[in-house]
UniProtKB/TrEMBL annotation:
Residue ranges with Polar residues bias: 17-28
Region of interest called Disordered, as start-end residue ranges on this chain: 1-29
Superkingdom per UniProt: Eukaryota
Organism: Brassica carinata (Ethiopian mustard)
Protein's name according to its UniProt entry: S1 motif domain-containing protein
Amino acid sequence: MLSLSSSSRLSRRPSKTFPQNKSSSVSPKTIVAAVAMSSGQTRERLELKKMFEDAYERCRTAPMEGVAFTVDDFAAAIEQYDFNSEIGTRVKGTVFKTDANGALVDISAKSSAYLSVEHACIHRIKHVVV
């Protein structure tokens, strides 16, 4: 096995064990891979690790710190754009994607609407060019 200290310039990857032929009585071989890293890369990895640990601790202890709005503000904004979604309700929207069977329409709601070809026109549509 490869033993490395934390200040070593080698980074140990997980070892893989491959069994020998089943009829063989020899123990399995262990393959160990090591990658050389410069001291700049090591320092950068340690800085990133520290930054992520600090961010995790801030999220765990003060998750709303630095947020410019409250949960109530967010709920009010969602309610402002809430629509009555009963069948038959007419709404205005903008087509942003089409396919052979219909179109996706942005209706400024929480989700988009799908308008099928059959409902897009009072006349029967035989072919749609996309």
